[in-house]
Amino acid sequence: MSATPRPTVFVTRGIPLRAAELLREHVDLRVWGQERNMMPDEIRQAVPGIHGLLVHPPTRVDKAILDAAGPQLKVVGTMSVGLDHIDLRECASRKIAVGYTPDVLTDATAELTVALTLSTCRRFKEAFDAVVNGGWGTWDNAQYLCGKEVKSSVIGIVGMGRIGFATAQRLKAFKPSRILYSGKHPKVYATELDAEYVTFEDLLRESDFVIVCLSVNSGNIGLFNADTFKKMKKSAIFINTSRGVVVNQNDLYEALKLGQIYAAGLDVTTPEPLPLDSPLLTLPNVIITPHIGSATERARSAMAELTVKNILAGLKGEPLPSPVHV
Ligand SMILES: O=C(O)C(=O)CO
């Protein structure tokens, strides 16, 4: 009697060992072995015949990839909370289940957002460079590397979802004067922080820190552009840990260079990795981290395990533990 063949799952990046072992117990695993994002043609070549696909942003899952995979593909599990790299409608129309990893990365991403906020307002990039390059100044100049404080500032959170809220909770400990937020609807849970629901325009005008924690949709691509930067205070600090596409990067560069805003801290860019000749890298008042919002051992292990559970459930035709509802 021949045994039922095991399903095949393709993984677009390495995953923590425990999650890989869990997957290997049940499926034939194929893993992209290189330390870089796959190019679309490389994925198309890798996926024919697979039953499950485990992806990491920014690797795109679109019609062409799904066509290349074939009709036996049952489940896509993304190791992310962001879904902008997946054509959800196309998956739904083919009855391919999609799972994602909200919640388990909220704390890690909020901590990174706070870290970026503090390191930008306290000019860490210039400070680190000064130590390494012999520019360590003294108190002779009382203004040497002076930055800004969160204390008594107005914090504006654009997108008070899980990560926005967790960020605001943490920043509240720094005693800002107000916390504002904008979005489609006021959030009941935001009252716990005395956060004020305001229009996007008011948030731009009044905030000392504009902190972007949005999930991307077709309505917010390029939302931060020359117009929006002009509406911010000259002293405003712009932080983005959402996705690079919500920012027009050329306009951000101009705004920073011309002093229309004070500084920026970005964990996400377009593209990723950011090319080494990006003009943003020439500015002293920009701190950029390489999309490490969820990069803690705890978060990444939890994300990988949840993704594996999503995939195993999808392969069996069972409800996913963390499904995306289209
Ligand atoms: O989960 C996501 O969407 C991420 O960007 C991970 O950092």
TrEMBL record:
User: Start and end of every D-isomer specific 2-hydroxyacid dehydrogenase catalytic domain?
Assistant: 10-324
The record's section on CDD domains has:
GDH
Which part of the chain is the D-isomer specific 2-hydroxyacid dehydrogenase NAD-binding domain?
Answer: 114-293
Instruction: Check the record and name the Gene3D superfamilies matching this protein.
Output: NAD(P)-binding Rossmann-like Domain
Q: Which SUPFAM superfamilies match?
A: Formate/glycerate dehydrogenase catalytic domain-like (SSF52283), NAD(P)-binding Rossmann-fold domains (SSF51735)
Provide the coiled-coil residue spans: none
Give one GO term, molecular function aspect. Answer: oxidoreductase activity
InterPro entries registered for this protein in UniProt: D-isomer_2-hydroxyacid_DH, D-isomer_2_OHA_DH_cat_dom, D-isomer_DH_CS, D-isomer_DH_NAD-bd, NAD(P)-bd_dom_sf
Task: Indicate yes or no for the key word Oxidoreductase.
Answer: yes
The record, for Pfam families, names: 2-Hacid_dh, 2-Hacid_dh_C
Q: Is the keyword Cell wall biogenesis/degradation in the record?
A: no
Q: Return the similarity comment.
A: Belongs to the D-isomer specific 2-hydroxyacid dehydrogenase family.
Which protein, by its recorded name, is this?
A: Glyoxylate reductase/hydroxypyruvate reductase
> What organism, scientifically named, is this protein from?
Sinanodonta woodiana
Q: What is the lineage of its organism?
A: Eukaryota, Metazoa, Spiralia, Lophotrochozoa, Mollusca
